[in-house]
Amino acid sequence: MIRFTRRTLIATAVAGAASALLSMPALAADPIKIGLVTALSGQSAQAGEALTRGMSIAIDEINAKGGLLGGRKLELVRRDDEGNPAKGVVAARELIFKEKVAVLFGGLDTPVSMAIVPIINQEKVPFMGPWAAGTGVTKNGANPNYAFRVSAVDEQVDRAMFNYAQKTFKSSKAGLILVNNPWGESNEKGIVAALAEKGLKPAAVEKFEASDVDLVPQLTRLKAAGADTLYLVGNVGPSAQVVKSLDRMGWKVPVVSHWGPAGGRFTELAGANAKNVHFIQTFSFFGKLSPVGEKVVAELKAKYPAIKGPDDITPAVGVANAYDGMQLAALAITRAGSTNGDAIREGFYKIDRYEGLIKTYVKPFSPTVHDALQSDDYVWAQFIDNRILPVGMSQ
Fold first, then answer.
1. Contact between residue 156 and residue 205 where contact means Cβ atoms under 8 Å apart
2. Inter-residue contact 38 to 106 (CB < 8 Å)
3. Which helix (H) or strand (E) holds 236?
4. Is 14 helix (H, G, I), strand (E, B) or coil?
5. pLDDT band with cut points at 50, 70 and 90 for residue 28
6. Over the stretch 364-381, which tens digit does the pLDDT of each residue have?
7. Direct distance between the N- and C-terminal alpha carbons of the chain, in angstroms, rounded to an integer
8. What is d(CA 86, CA 377) in angstroms, rounded to the nearest whole number?
9. Angle formed by the axes of helices 341-349 and 316-336, to 10°?
10. Buried residues in 113-145 as b, exposed as e (16+ CB within 10 A)
11. CA-CA-CA-CA torsion for 188, 190, 191, 193, nearest 10 degrees?
């Protein structure tokens, strides 16, 4: 009886092993997980949803064509960071270690992205930034560097802000009003450098906390310093408080902003003078679109019934950056021929050309350039009737 039991066990084990070997090719059909860490709640939730939609449209297109690496479909796995760096780190670690994502997208907020970047470089997981503009996200000193980006870059935005302020408002005395965090610090450095290139210095520099609701004291000091244009860097809530504080002061001064106001309910929070803020964008769905733009709009309308037209695709930069970022990441995976992190990193460098939504990318990445968008890819916008329109476009 014992001998029979042993033989049975051995036969069962052999059969099991053979069955396992026969089933191994099925692994090729396992999904390739793509992670997204972003604000899905709070005042920037609208921006997090825009990133989700841009990535989802791209993933649907890729899967409809048969997926990647011999038929493996892409699967989006999201986590909410609530705009908090500590929560972003927890979310990133969960996606990397538990979900085993091949590429991690993330960081609406520069502080969140800056907290995640050391992890992705240590664990050799490629990171794609579709929003956070802090220069140090991609220029992080790591070698090899796993952080890539399809978004604005602070040092380029700062130079563009200066040029726009001079051209549009004949600005000569810049008043800087910046959020007191790494994103604000990144832009202070960049704006001061842009001014220095023309032999200028800021009239004054003021900081605010993300939770501040009254910025009259800081603005009063900027006015006293003779500022003729405000350079604003902050997300939705505090940017709206700048406008409301200017209203209380009765100070009508041009405001040239980073793209923070585009991330959520800015017009609702800022009031009628929200329209006076000119801010940078990487894309607009208004005006004549390329064939790729027309296709993406049609797909958004089909997938999200609430979208009837460009008015409803907001913030546009979130959708556009995430869409192109996802398509470029898919090309990198294809060039890699695997989901190995280091191979995907090298795969980004092997992308020759991609006709994207924002532009046609030609060799967008190299070992020394991890940002696919440059300063000439930016457009300037303002809120008109609660719509983000290119400056000068009234309808």
1. no
2. yes
3. helix 236-249
4. helix
5. low
6. 999 999 999 988 889 899
7. 87
8. 32
9. 110
10. bbbbbebbbeeebbbbbbbbbbbbbbbbeeeeb
11. 120
pTM tops 0.90: no
Q: Is 137:371 a contact under the CB 8 Å cutoff? A: no
| Range among 41-45, 171-175, 314-318 rated most confident | 171-175
DSSP SS3 for 247: helix
The tokens describing 93, both together, are 């670690």
Summarize the confidence of residues 86-98 as an average pLDDT.
98
d(CA 69, CA 233): 42
Residue 252: closest CA among 169, 160, 161: 169
Residue count (the chain): 395
**Average of per-residue pLDDT across 247-253:** 96
CA–CA separation, 308 and 322 (whole Å): 20
Tokens of 132: 């956070």
State which amino acid sits at residue 238.
Answer: P
Q: Write out pLDDT tens, residues 156-198.
A: 999 999 999 999 999 999 999 999 998 899 899 999 999 999 9
Phi/psi at 383 (nearest 5 deg)? -85, 120
Q: How far apart are CA 285 and CA 126, in angstroms?
A: 29
Token digits of residue 342: 């280091």
Helices 182-197 & 154-169, crossing angle to 10 degrees?
Answer: 50
* Cβ neighbours of 30 (radius 10 Å): 13
Contact (Cβ atoms closer than 8 angstroms) between residue 328 and residue 354: yes
Neighbouring C-alpha atoms within 13 Å toward the C-beta of 160: 22
* 225 to 101, 167, 193, 213, 218: CA distances (angstroms): 50, 22, 20, 22, 11
- pLDDT reported for residue 3: 47
Nearest residue to 124 via CA among 150, 106, 142:
142
Q: Rounded CA gap, 40 and 94, in Å? A: 16
Q: Which residue has the tokens 């801010």?
A: 279
